[in-house]
């Protein structure tokens, strides 16, 4: 049985996990604090999903607070990567150092994300120990993907680590404490998704993002902005 590196128990007690990422932002930043009808419908849908998932998994699911919900545009450097980093590049764990060293690439990615992008929830999945809601948009984001790739390649060239990964936009609802029953839990995802579907005729659940920022984190429930807007 493998335990999650990001959560200690389902209370939840979050394990220390430091680093930084580039996150998409909406209204006041991250978290589901939007006031529009579509954003409120989005928040309610995710809240129902988290409730329903917790009901079928019990004490194996650690739910994140809504104020930490976000869509990651690009993972930066985090403590889980430390052993793969060249020793002289570990200073990039500090986002203030990173934004100086790869500031040009970060700024280009942020500029590419400065547009209205409407996201809709489409599926509930388990990725590793993370319980996520996949989100999609009809917007063309080729330039965003290009700048994301540039940033990851630049970070990889400095650290000596393989950091390039496909972008699969999602919001994380929480984490499974361990993988003891993960296959059974994964099989329940479609049922949980269908059971929390919105009522016919209700407001379509969408989230509008229009910019991106660099965020530091101390664990998976605690994020703060280090970007200058």
Could you explain the architecture of this structure?
It is globular, with a radius of gyration of 18 Å. The protein has a 5-stranded antiparallel sheet with strand order 4-8-7-6-9, sandwiched between helices. Strands 5-3-10-11 form a 4-stranded antiparallel sheet. It has a two-stranded antiparallel sheet with strand order 1-2. It has one domain: Cyclic Phosphodiesterase, Chain: A (Alpha-Beta Complex). The chain has helices at residues 37-57, 95-101, 103-112, 142-159, 182-195, and strands at 7-9, 13-14, 19-25, 61-63, 72-78, 117-127, 130-136, 170-176, 207-209, 211-219, 222-225. Helix 1 (37-57) packs antiparallel against helix 5 and helix 3 (103-112) runs antiparallel to helix 4. The model has no long low-confidence stretch (mean pLDDT 91). A hairpin with a 2-residue loop joins strand 10 and strand 11 (222-225). The chain has 229 residues and is of the alpha+beta class. The longest helix is centred in the N-terminal third of the chain and has 21 residues, at 37-57.
Task: Please provide the ordered H/E string of secondary-structure elements.
Answer: EEEHEEHHEEHEHEEE
Q: What's the overall average pLDDT, rounded?
A: 91
- In total, the number of domains comes to 1
| CATH second-level architecture | Alpha-Beta Complex
Shape: globular
Question: Which runs of at least 5 residues are low in confidence (pLDDT < 50)?
Answer: none
Straight-line distance between termini = 44 Å
Largest sheet: 5 strands, antiparallel
Task: Give the CATH class.
Answer: Alpha Beta
Number of strands: 11
Helix content: 25-40%
Derived from helix and strand composition plus strand pairing, the structural class reads: alpha+beta
